Amino acid sequence: MEKIHFEEKDSDLVQMVPGLSRKILAHGGSLMIVKIMIDKDVIGPLHQHIHEQTTYILKGKMEFTIEDKKIICQAGDSLYIAPNLIHGVACLEEGELLDIFTPMRDDFLS
Q1: Nearest one of 47, 42, 45, 50 to 19, comparing CA atoms
Q2: Does residue 8 fall inside a structural domain?
Q3: pLDDT tens, 14-66?
Q4: Intra-chain end-to-end CA distance of the chain, in Å
Q5: Is 85 helix (H, G, I), strand (E, B) or coil?
Q6: Nearest-angstrom CA–CA distance, 6 and 15
Q7: Predicted local distance difference test score (pLDDT) of residue 110
């Protein structure tokens, strides 16, 4: 049986770039949920991946770039990012995000 209960305290904090860290909160089947912590003025570099992604802003204010569009989001807002779209984020206020991926990000597990 796959693991069905995850405690945040058991998840490793992984620094992606200075001021931008992630914690895998749960994963299984084809889904993964990841908490992102980002310091003010940090830029999450533009990137793309094969995964569908939804992002929920827990706290803070961010400017997302998706392809050639810029979108300002704050706590309570959500985004959908289709597979293979180039995207990134600039943090306008210290923040936290929940990213949900399908299929799960195997690269985050290694």
Answers
A1: 42
A2: no
A3: 999 999 999 999 999 999 999 999 999 999 999 999 999 999 999 999 999 99
A4: 21
A5: coil
A6: 20
A7: 82
- Please tell me the total count of domains within the chain: 1
Dist CA 57 CA 49 (whole Å): 20
CA distances from 16 to 23, 70, 73, 77, 90 (A): 10, 22, 21, 23, 14
Tell me the per-residue pLDDT of 81-101, one tens digit each, with 9 for 90 and over: 999 999 999 999 999 999 999
Closest Cα partner for 69 from 85, 45, 50, 52? Answer: 85
Provide the 3-class DSSP secondary structure of residue 40. Answer: coil
Question: Any idea what the CATH number is for the domain that residue 74 is in?
Answer: 2.60.120.10
